[in-house]
Design goal:
Blueprint: H1 2-5, H2 9-18, H3 25-33, H4 40-50, H5 57-77, H6 100-110, E1 121-126, H7 133-143, E2 152-156, H8 169-179, H9 191-202, E3 208-214, H10 217-220, E4 231-236, H11 241-247, E5 250-253, H12 259-270, H13 272-277, H14 279-289, H15 293-305, H16 312-319, H17 324-327, H18 337-346, H19 350-359, E6 366-368, H20 369-376, H21 380-392, E7 397-400, E8 403-405, H22 408-419, H23 423-448, H24 472-495, H25 499-508, H26 510-516, H27 519-536, H28 539-555, H29 559-576, H30 579-595, H31 599-616, H32 619-635, H33 639-655, H34 659-675, H35 679-696, H36 699-715, H37 719-735, H38 739-749
Parallel strand pairs: 1-4, 1-5, 2-3, 3-4
Antiparallel strand pairs: 6-8, 7-8
Amino acid sequence: MKEDSGCTYRQLEQRAARRGVVLARSTIADTLRRDALPRPDTLIAFVRACAPGQDVHPWLAARNRLAMASAATADLDSGSVRAPVPRQLPAPPALFTGRTDELRFLDATIGQPHPSSRTVLISAVGGAGGIGKTSLVLQWAHTNADQFPDGQLYADLRGFGPDPTPVPATVTLRGFLQALGVPPGSVPDPVDAQAALFRSLVAKRRMLVLLDNVRDTDHVIPLLPGSPTCTVLITSRHQLRGLAVTHGARTLTLDKLSETEARDLLGAHLGPGRADQHRQALDALVRHCGGLPLALAIVASRAASYPDHPLDGVVRDLHDSSVRLDALTTGELRADLRAVFSWSYRALSPPAGALFDLLGLVPAVDISLPALASLAATSTQRAQELARELEDTALLRQHAPGRFRMHDLVHLYSAQRGRARPGGEDQEAVRRLVDFYLHTACAADRLLDPRRHPLVLGPPSPGCTPVALTDASAAMSWFDAEHERVRESQRLAMERQWFAQVWQLARTLVTFHARRRQVTDQLAVWRMGLAATEQSDNISASAMAHRYLGQAHSQNGQHDEGVRHLRLAVDRAREAGDAAELARGHYALSVSADRVGDPRQALVHAHEALVEFQDLGDMVEVARVLNAIGWECAQLARYEEAQDSCTRALTLFREHGHPDGEADTLHSLGLIAGNTGQQHSALAYYRQALAVYHDVGNTRGEADCLESLGELHESLGQHGDARDAWQRLVVLLRVQGRETEAVQVEHRMGLPPR
């Protein structure tokens, strides 16, 4: 090669110097005399000086083959003919439970290397600190060790831990090379030379390389073999997306253990006798640990320290969520849950860390991207970038498109950090989040019932961007997804004594609760809403809260309590001089009387409401009361009055575009037609009502109408059609949590109970 270059020793030395490499003339002379194999770094410098464009890897491979041959000869002289076979795997986990699907995934992706494979098999296991990544891969590696007869290499790269600096790749490579028989003095210094030598030594060998606790993709790339006979198993809190893109790595993200797996693991730690003796305490500990293997192991260690003590003491220590993390430690950093989480936090950029702290202010983290953006006072695009960074360190998980969830124990750590933030920032962030749900829910409610008297809200807080919903279907979908978050924001507002927002949030849920027949939730939000109105001395709002609370009690079968609140609603409305609220109170009393089978009293209150609404010129409410009057007249067999009143109501509802009222009135007309011998007309009315209820997502009305339709089919001897209607009814009742009614319908159909 030197001859082909046409260079003298001095010229080669100068070429190397221009590259920043020292290549003395005496070293070149020693290399060319071939008295001994050159060091890898010397060989690289020499090849690049002679032929700058030539690939050095074939030269290194040839040099390494000669080195291996020399080592084998030396071993032969000493009575040993085998190259070193490293067995570096740490001991398998003493207790391992569950993870059946995850082990099956590893079997499918990296088990049984195939001779025809053209690339190294890589699998990266990600997940939060303490989730059991290392235990999983060690369990798999030991179970499958016989697949790798040429050895198993292991390194903890300390990407996350007490030391903020991960182990450099060059340190790990030096250890691997020495394990493979390279003398310490023959290990080259540059990392690329070490990596090239490592790849040469493991080429065509069936080996497992287990790289534990990797920081990121760049951290691990120099440690990857190039041979398809090798398998690499990696753990990291980062998701290592780059490794999947550039090297085809298959990724697996660990989630918490199921309750059964967690109970089995904790029971295995405690022993069957103690576990059986303290079943209730065991279940409580499993709940408090949230399926996190490290937390379960810490709890088991504490319990093992006092084998004669009942487990109730440990349960008490974990019961209070505000100090639970204090109990989840053994006094050593690697078994201290707060410290383990802090190592992930330390890897975040300052903006991502700030968002993590803000998430601690949220009661329970299951949050949408738009809500996340308002919490952080940023754009959805920027919020997505920050959320991805939290995902990459396994502090947050995108469990559905655009929705993010945090493990309960990670959330406790976030909450502790959030409480340490300046009070003003805390207050502003919570206000933005409450305003996000209030303004979006208010807009959604308007789409569901545009004729209802609107809530008058001030502008949202700076940095808050409510969702722009397009139609009623989108509004129902938003409520279905965010109902619990709206309720949580109401509780947050109550804690902060933002009383107007408390009852306003309750008001935004009225139509949704009615359509989904969520009476228990309606009671809960209006109990809090009533308390808020009484704190703020808003008499009209108090009248409204009593009315909605009374309606909910009445729907829930608590007639006396319902009437008490409704009468208070009427009294407060008179006190406030609020004619509209007074009319609504009388209408609610009419509906309550109907529920207990008192149509005459229902008519009295309905006519009171009708007069008030006519004076106000509120034609949608006039239509609602006319339908109620028609229904009550039908109960009293005054069918001509009933038909006239409901027909007028139907016309008004259609004129003013109120589909819920239209469907309710069609249901009433079906009842009237059925009771006057016009069964075919009744069927037509019921089917029209069902179609409208279904279109607007009013499952409450749909269920009531299916019951009437089934009864009509049954009376006509159409038993198959009746059965179809009742089967659909059973499904809806169960969706609404009305199990007792569902069983009654099944009994009517002659079906065995579930």
